Amino acid sequence: MKHIPLVAIFCVLVACAPSKEKICGNIDEGIRTYLEKAASRANKDIDIHELKTTGFDMIGAGQIDTLSKAEYARKIAHFLTLQKSAGARAKAYTDSVDYYTKLDSLTTLQITNRWQDPKVYYYSRTYVDVTIGNTKTVDTIRYALDRTFKLIPIL
């Protein structure tokens, strides 16, 4: 008899929570909108053959920053490799390394200033079969989206 109010409250909470399929559908629409706008900005035709979110995780702002830092480190390593073999064009690659190093430093500063950020984001696993211009992409890609299902570019 004591547990009836707890069970009732649990049932109400579960009934009010959106289903996984509904959230995945909203994520798909957010990604579709982003891809269509990106193709439009680049003046390229887009043909989305298939777009299906298979799952998602809820992550915090710190995880988004960590993903960005990992991408910056990958870009810095890539440009350092190109710089070593560039010869006369090494200055252009040095500028790129400096740019991503500054972004990495700003992200580190952001992390220290935002250690209690309560925002939660969706981090989706989405199967994408799309042709933009002459480039066809068929892959499972991870996307980060905010609560309004707007895509957050991580680079």
Can you give a write-up of this model?
By secondary structure, the protein is of the alpha+beta class. It has a domain at 45-152. The chain has helices at 4-16, 20-41, 61-84, 90-113, and strands at 46-60, 120-132, 135-145, 151-152. It has a 4-stranded antiparallel beta sheet with strand order 1-2-3-4. Strand 3 and strand 4 form a beta hairpin. The longest helix has 24 residues, at 61-84. The model has no long low-confidence stretch (mean pLDDT 84).
**What is the N-to-C succession of helices and strands?**
HHEHHEEE
Note the overall shape: flat
- The separation of the N and C termini measures 55 Å
Poorly predicted runs of 5 or more residues: none
The chain-level structural class is alpha+beta
The fraction of residues in strands falls at 25-35%
Strand order within the widest beta sheet: 1-2-3-4
Query: Overall pLDDT, averaged?
Result: 84
Largest sheet: 4 strands, antiparallel
Helix content range: 40-55%
**Individual helix count:** 4
Total beta strands? 4
Rg over C-alpha atoms, rounded to the nearest angstrom: 21 Å
